[in-house]
Amino acid sequence: AEAARLGVEVLALTDHDGMYGVPQFAQAAARLADRGGPKLGTVFGAELSLGLPGNQNGTPDPEGRHLLILARDAEGYRRLCAVISAAQLAGGQKGRPVYRTEALADAHHGHWVVLTGCRKGTVPAALAHGGPEAAWRELGILTEMFGHENVMVELTCQHDPGDDERNDILARLAAMADVGLVAAGNVHFAAPAQTRLAQALAAIRARRSLADMDGWLPAAGTAYLRSGPEMAARLRRYPGVLEATVALGRACAFDFRVIAPRLPDYPVPAGHTEA
């Protein structure tokens, strides 16, 4: 509903180490169109947690680095599901997937777009802790693994201190590496009014009270879905990024019904549904 109100054309959902929200996401987009609303393109992906030392359930700020992958098409979705399933099984326990770098590199076959991601992405994290040279090395690792044409540097803007400085450096690194540059909101909730709800959910995931989570939560509720004009205003300093982002969304959008299995009904007692 918020996406429709803002006039969003394409929306991507990237859960952590799974596709948990995909059915509801796809159904909501379909209902919007069925009710006469605008057609919302759906993009499916996941944020993979690399190098986890153990089960991270109950951790305020889980360790490890993130690899953000978008499926270009239905085949990319299938391949992404396969590597996540293998990693979850390899971990031996819920909350600790174990990804093999060589398996990720071998699995994509051009069906994924790999973004540098949020502060826990390998490139932004290296920039924060080791400077531009460290970030450049990490970007080189990604392009070697997945190919220049499949890696894009991601800019995120949430009115946080250092956003512009970080994005300026990332934009220069993208130009030097000859890879694409796109923008994302690093969205965690739909509207500013949902900030408190998002904080409560973060506390539940970490199995802590809101008071105990205070030092781990963002200083401001800026991780909400923004309109096109607002993003355009933020991206003026990066010519062409808005257009590249729109083009990426359109290229990766597909209807989930092309891959959703048509499962037979399961018998349930009278007065009950499968749900």
Please write out the topology.
Blueprint: H1 2-6, E1 10-16, H2 22-34, E2 41-50, E3 65-71, H3 74-91, H4 101-107, E4 112-115, H5 122-130, H6 132-146, E5 151-156, H7 163-177, E6 180-184, H8 195-206, H9 210-213, H10 228-234, H11 241-252
Helix pairs in contact: 5-6, 6-7
Task: Describe what is shown at a glance.
With 275 residues, this protein is of the alpha/beta class.
Structure description:
This protein starts with a helix and ends in a 23-residue tail after the last helix. The chain is α/β, with parallel strands linked by helices. β1, α2 and β2 form a beta-alpha-beta unit. Strands 1-2-3-4-5-6 form a six-stranded mixed sheet.
Q: Report the mean per-residue pLDDT as an integer.
A: 91
Number of helices: 11
Distance between the termini: 23 Å
Percentage of helical residues? 40-55%
- The low-confidence parts are none
Quickly give the structural class: alpha/beta
- Strand residues, percent: 5-15%
Q: Can you count the beta strands? A: 6
Please tell me how large the radius of gyration is: 19 Å
Spatial arrangement of strands, main beta sheet: 1-2-3-4-5-6
The oligomeric state is single chain
Biggest pleated-sheet summary: 6 strands, mixed
Please trace the helix and strand order, writing H or E for each element. HEHEEHHEHHEHEHHHH
Principal-axes shape call: globular
Looking at this protein, list some descriptive labels.
6 strands, 43% helix, alpha/beta, 275 residues
